[in-house]
Specification:
single chain; about 250 residues; mainly alpha; elongated; membrane; ABC transporter permease; transmembrane helix
């Protein structure tokens, strides 16, 4: 998988860039099938388990104005990149694995190789770039949906929105926002690599394609957890300011 990722990155910057139409098509496909689940999931997680628990706890101390500082951690640092990765892996990644797996078992990939077409550049590169780009875009939508869920929580508790946004923007930092986008880019590259690898190495007919899809989504989910933990620990260790109470 790492070798496939290296080949895709090296050939993505090497002309000719004839994969642009396929990139646009894959980007549109991912946007169409995943944007609605992403927004609903981000809003639901922000409003439900996070917002209700946080508001109940802070309400005991009469400190609902501190919801903004908590939501910087909830939305920007954790939920937004995580929800983006899970939705993209579950919806877009599985579709890519099934598509490439079907082409592999029908020997279309081998036919392209026989014709002298670089299968990595024509199949993997546009999907890699499209998933990374869609993860970065979806992170914006996840942030907005998460903040919308927080606003509903604040209004539900009868608190004013002014103190919430004041605490939110005073606690948020550009470093945390940049780290959120960087994490999404890593998630996107990993998801694309795993799903493309499993797809172009599928075998055994329709049953083999099903196994490849199952392996791809399970592997992607495990790596999402590993990357999320490792990235967060490195971020906090190298930037102690993020652990300070603001």
């Amino acid at each position: 998988m790492l070798r496939l990722l290296g080949l895709a990155l090296s050939r993505a910057v090497r002309p000719p860039f004839d994969y642009a139409p396929e990139f646009v098509e894959q980007f549109r496909f991912a946007l169409k099938i995943a944007i609605f689940p992403l927004i609903i999931t981000s809003f639901a997680l922000s409003f439900g388990p996070a917002g209700i628990q946080a508001s109940n706890f802070l309400g005991l101390f009469g400190a609902l104005d501190r919801m903004g500082g908590i939501y910087v951690l909830i939305v920007v640092r954790f939920f937004s990149p995580l929800v983006t990765a899970i939705v993209v892996a579950g919806a877009v990644g599985t579709a890519i694995t099934a598509d490439l797996g079907a082409r592999k078992v029908r020997e279309e990939v081998d036919a392209l190789s026989v014709l002298g077409i670089d299968t990595v550049k024509s199949l993997v590169v546009p999907r890699l770039l499209a998933i990374v780009a869609i993860c970065l875009l979806f992170n914006v939508f996840a942030l907005l949906a998460g903040v919308a869920g927080a606003v509903v929580v604040v209004l539900q508790n009868g608190a004013p929105l002014g103190p919430f946004f004041s605490a939110f923007f005073s606690s948020a930092t550009t470093l945390e926002l940049a780290a959120s986008f960087l994490k999404c880019a890593l998630f996107g590259a990993m998801i694309a690599t795993v799903c493309c690898y499993k797809g172009i190495n599928a075998s055994g007919g329709a049953e083999g394609v099903g196994r490849a899809v199952n392996q791809a989504v399970v592997t992607a989910f495990l790596l999402i957890g590993a990357i999320d933990y490792t990235f967060t620990q490195i971020l906090l260790a190298t930037n102690p300011i993020l652990s300070e109470v603001r």
